[in-house]
Records
---
Amino acid sequence: MAFRTFIAALALSASFAAPALAQDIAAAKTALAGDYDRIVKELITITEIPAPPFGEQARAEYFAKAFKDLGLAEVAIDAEGNVTGLRRGTVAAGGALVVVSAHLDTVFPKGTDVTVRREGNTLNAPGVGDDTVGLTGLLAWVRALNAAKVPTRHDVLFVATVGEEGPGDLRGVRHLFTKNPYKGQIAAFISVDGSDPSRIVNQAVGSKRYNIAFTGPGGHSYGAFGIVNPMAAMADAVKRLYETDVPASPRTSFAASVVSGGTSVNSIPDRIELQVDMRSPDPKALERLEKRFLAIVDEAVAAENYARSTNLGEVGAEKTRIGDRPAGATADKHQLVVTSQKVLAEHGFQTQLLASSTDSNIPMSLGVPAITVGTGGGGGRAHSVDEYVNIERNAFIGGLSSGMALLVAVADLDWTAK
Ligand SMILES: [Zn+2]
């Protein structure tokens, strides 16, 4: 073998072993920085496509087209509404892959004004940071990685999920891990959510949410005085809930948060509804709290039926679980967490490991390594109509660059043994 051929062969094999080289990443960052105006413009465009819970379709279609235009393979909208597109790695097709995802939905109902207002270096609009900046980041990363021809060891599946926020109850990511054709191939999951790149969520705060309808015979406030009252049972249940001990660490919480019902000021109500939210990053603590709450409802109903007359009928309770997000965690020492911290530190971010409720709850609960990170230049007031992001050029591109480098580093780890 001629020396030159030998060197070429060596270079070829090296490119398979360690796909993304430092100069590749540097070229991709240059491409990203040069793309600034377009990224900001696209952030505005996507923010202004309304995406209320269960109404993400227009945004999903925008993404399917964008993924195709960027040359991603196998672009599809799955049965739940998630958009997927594959960027092939250097290993054989069909093996372990890394998912990077952002969520399509916002918390804002249909009809909310989503017009973006630009004031100097900030963009203001509902949903602009949570999670449109993440969605825009995905597209910017593919464009920059393609421009610089950056290879990765593993395939990267780019995903825009539906149903991350409250009422969606993680329906998109749940589908991805239980029914989507790629479900068995996902070795690591990165959710890009929010606009702060120093936050790494590696603990999933689980939640259980209930609607309890307390029912009873109802009657005249004066004429039927003495009969059971579902409102009294509801109040008793709330009081008992607030007497419940929960662990301070890991932080476990409950809230009686919404109440509705009643007929008129001079009626004993026949129906009162109560909503309760319970949370913990510890699955066992959450399960104990849920069991205790359900027992409390029964105790409060029994106490009311004992305390007052049931001549016209008894008080009862209809319990409906309206939210179920599993708890879980990715260990602090896991290669996904360690690598992410290292990359973000190299980009000047002082990272913190946090617990939160995000799309990563589902993979974490299933034992698939997952983290949620922010990207971009920071922002605030998420879930309010005053939501904003900072688009000052250096901070914005710096945040996006760190996220892209993190993604490449994770896709270059060895996930085949997982
Ligand atoms: Zn979000």
---
Amino acid sequence: MAHPAIEISGLTKRYGEGDAAVDALKGVDMIVQPGEVVGLIGPSGSGKSTLLKCLGAVIEPSSGRMALAGQTIYHNGWKVADLRALRRDRIGFVFQAPYLIPFLDVTDNVAVLPMLAGVSNGKARDRAREMLAALDVGHRAQAQVPQLSGGEQQRVAIARALVNQPPIILADEPTAPLDSERALTVIRILNEMAQRFGTAIIVVTHDEKIIPTFRRIYHIRDGRTYEEAGAARAA
Ligand SMILES: Nc1ncnc2c1ncn2[C@@H]1O[C@H](COP(=O)(O)OP(=O)(O)O)[C@@H](O)[C@H]1O
Ligand SMILES: [Mg+2]
């Protein structure tokens, strides 16, 4: 069998030192297969964003191990040398706020990622337009960001996360600003992308509307993860 897309074991993260230390992760275990979309659910302050930031190589864990597609990227203080390349080429982020660049048009907001990865401007824009079309915002390709609705902006942000076809997408409350219908559309798109490209996707959420859509859920409480019993949830 192929390697899991994501494998985390015994991961801990301590912020600060001494009396001010906060143990945000106390031993997290998680496995996500290629093509799988898993939910990560937990109360505010339970460590969800910390876990995504560790996995996304935005912050460094304190101990434990993380591997992507069978390749160790972190192990008890050892880490891969080129974290920037790891973030750029292997991981797509979707946040609650779309964080689009207001002075670039929609196409260039997406094209900037392949451009940063060394793709020519023309090819990068072609790829961007293709991905925008796949997300049903192709007709907005030349619009300016402030002209878009919230739902459209979020779909552009997803196009940007997907355009380099990273094997992993990390989404931190991606549907929080959206109404029910838009939220479910975003989840449908993520599921389609997972199927189409074999992307492994972790969705942090406490959005009741989308929780039933996950086949597999990890709960996180006080820095520890628990896989929900009963593997197959929704059909
Ligand atoms: N940069 C930081 N410095 C110190 N403590 C932090 C920092 N970021 C988060 N924390 C603490 O770590 C814990 C987990 O936070 P976080 O991962 O943001 O939780 P969640 O995303 O589940 O709300 C909380 O107690 C939070 O206050
Ligand atoms: Mg958070």
